[in-house]
Amino acid sequence: MPEAKVLPIDVAVGILMKPNGDVLLGQRPDGKPYAGYWEFPGGKVEADEAIIDALKREFVEELGVEVISAEPWCGVEHVYPHAHVRLHFYISRDWRGEPQSLENQAFAWQGCVGVEPLLPATIPLIEWLDKLRYPG
């Protein structure tokens, strides 16, 4: 019998971007895979949930921020030892509230990204994002 193919887990990921190009990164809390690694905030898309709705829900739950609008940016599949994920990245320049650490995670606004270590799926995105943030 052929092996059942494991479908990737859909994850909504948000990049809050300030007018100066700074973006928000969060640090994965203790008890989660890759604890201590930095990533863009987000979370799993629930069954029958639109990706943008998952993004808005996760930002309220994790950071106490209401995403007013966000545009789809890119999608990346990444296979980690613990999970196969399909990451749906959105960029938001329009939100309400200041980020708060509601799940005891650290976070930092970054221009030139200096936090380490970065989650493996995040690394190539920083270069693409820099081209968007700092054209020319």
UniProtKB/TrEMBL annotation:
GO terms for biological process: DNA repair; DNA replication. Gene3D superfamilies: Nucleoside Triphosphate Pyrophosphohydrolase. One of its GO terms (molecular function) is 8-oxo-7,8-dihydroguanosine triphosphate pyrophosphatase activity. The keyword Disulfide bond does not apply. Keywords: DNA damage, DNA repair, DNA replication, Hydrolase, Magnesium, Metal-binding, Mutator protein. Its EC number is 3.6.1.55. InterPro entries: MutT-like, Nudix_hydrolase, NUDIX_hydrolase-like_dom_sf, NUDIX_hydrolase_CS, NUDIX_hydrolase_dom. Pfam families: NUDIX. Residues 7-132 form the Nudix hydrolase domain. Belongs to the Nudix hydrolase family. This is 8-oxo-dGTP diphosphatase. It comes from Herminiimonas arsenicoxydans.
